């Protein structure tokens, strides 16, 4: 279906919500989620909370696992699936389990390494490559930018483009990390 994406990992606290919000905001998409989160407050006019997932055009799905009815149907049909992960044994185990379930069904999967410092992104990639080689990786390092975006209800890209203070704080991160990721997602969508 045209212009659809899924952000998923069975592990919580890996960054699904801020990634979903920022992408939806910057790509002018609706959010459908099965998770009560900040999305409902900061993107309330364009977010739907439901456990009955159905594919809808121009929508980004923010899902916290495989318990919602219809999730595997969504996995099969969206343009791109984004799997956030950080360098923690539980996160890596659950990410491998998530990949095992979605890779046979998905059109395109990308990994987003989050909460990274030093060589964390390399450790994550090396760990996942052993079982699932050839995936595309993006690093959204440890930053407070995403907290600011959820608090303000504006994407980090928007904040940096419209406010000098945010530009000073997060301009390099947005330009070097977030924009390449955003552009890669945009390329997979039929915009």
Describe the fold and architecture.
The chain has 191 residues and is α/β, with parallel strands linked by helices. The protein contains 8 helices and 7 strands, in the order βαβαββαβαβαβααα. The protein has a 7-stranded parallel sheet, sandwiched between helices. Helix 1 crosses helix 6. It starts with a strand and ends with a helix.
Summarize the structure.
By secondary structure, the chain is of the alpha/beta class. The protein contains eight helices and seven strands; from the N terminus they run βαβαββαβαβαβααα. Helix 5 (120-129) links the parallel strand 6 and strand 7 (136-140).
Rough outline: globular
Helix count from the secondary structure assignment: 8
Strand order of the largest sheet: 3-2-4-1-5-6-7
The gyration radius over C-alpha positions equals 15 Å
Report, as a whole number of angstroms, the end-to-end distance. 12 Å
Low-pLDDT segments, ≥5 res: none
Which structural category do the helix and sheet elements fall into?
alpha/beta
Helix-strand sequence: EHEHEEHEHEHEHHH
Mean pLDDT: 90
Helicity level, as a percent range? 40-55%
Number of strands: 7
Oligomer: single chain
How much strand? 15-25%
């Amino acid at each position: 279906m045209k212009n659809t994406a899924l952000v998923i990992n069975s592990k919580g606290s890996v960054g699904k919500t801020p990634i979903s919000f920022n992408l939806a905001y910057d790509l002018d998409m609706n959010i459908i989620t099965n998770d009560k989160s900040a999305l409902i407050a900061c993107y309330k006019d364009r977010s739907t909370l439901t456990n009955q997932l159905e594919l809808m055009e121009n929508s980004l799905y923010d899902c916290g696992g495989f318990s919602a009815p219809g999730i595997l149907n969504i996995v099969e049909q969206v343009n791109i699936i984004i799997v956030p992960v950080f360098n923690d044994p539980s996160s890596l185990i659950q990410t491998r389990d998530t990949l095992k379930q979605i890779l046979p069904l998905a059109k395109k999967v990308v990994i987003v390494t989050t909460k990274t410092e030093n060589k964390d992104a390399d450790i994550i990639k090396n760990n996942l490559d052993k079982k699932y080689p050839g995936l595309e990786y993006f690093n959204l390092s440890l930053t407070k930018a995403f907290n600011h975006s959820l608090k303000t209800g504006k994407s980090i890209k928007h904040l940096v483009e419209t406010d000098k203070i945010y530009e000073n704080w997060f301009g390099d991160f947005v330009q070097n990390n977030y924009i390449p990721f955003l552009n890669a997602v945009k390329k997979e969508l039929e915009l």
